[in-house]
């Protein structure tokens, strides 16, 4: 399957909204190739030229994972 939009990547709605707000409409080749296996929890090794979106390819799945993690209750205040 060829990914042509960020919504096809099954990212959280808040991430899709943030991408749209910043003007990103379509994933680059490295993002389309790397994000799906990363979202599945698989290891990804990607190589692409500077400026092609490798950082987002790595961070979008990481942020998606963090958004789904339950927050640890904070301890009692000490101040």
From TrEMBL:
GO CC terms, sorted: cytosol
Q: Which PROSITE patterns match?
A: Q_MOTIF (PS51195)
Instruction: Write down the Pfam families for this protein, in alphabetical order.
Output: DEAD (PF00270)
- Identify the residues that the record assigns to the DEAD-box RNA helicase Q domain, covering every copy: 4-32
Tell whether Ion transport is among the UniProt keywords: no
Annotated motif Q motif, positions: 4-32
Named from the GO MF annotations, one term is: RNA helicase activity
Q: Which Gene3D superfamilies does its entry note?
A: P-loop containing nucleotide triphosphate hydrolases (3.40.50.300)
Keywords of the record: ATP-binding, Helicase, Hydrolase, Nucleotide-binding
For this entry, the protein name equals ATP-dependent RNA helicase SrmB
Source species of the chain: Salmonella enterica subsp. enterica serovar Wilhelmsburg
């Amino acid at each position: 399957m060829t990914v042509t939009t960020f919504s096809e990547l099954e990212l959280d709605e808040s991430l899709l909204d943030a991408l749209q707000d910043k003007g990103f409409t379509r994933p680059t080749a490295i993002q389309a190739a790397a994000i799906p296996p990363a979202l599945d929890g698989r290891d990804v090794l990607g190589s692409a030229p500077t400026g092609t979106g490798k950082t987002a390819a790595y961070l979008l799945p990481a942020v998606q994972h963090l958004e789904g993690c339950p927050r640890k209750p904070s301890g009692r205040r000490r101040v």
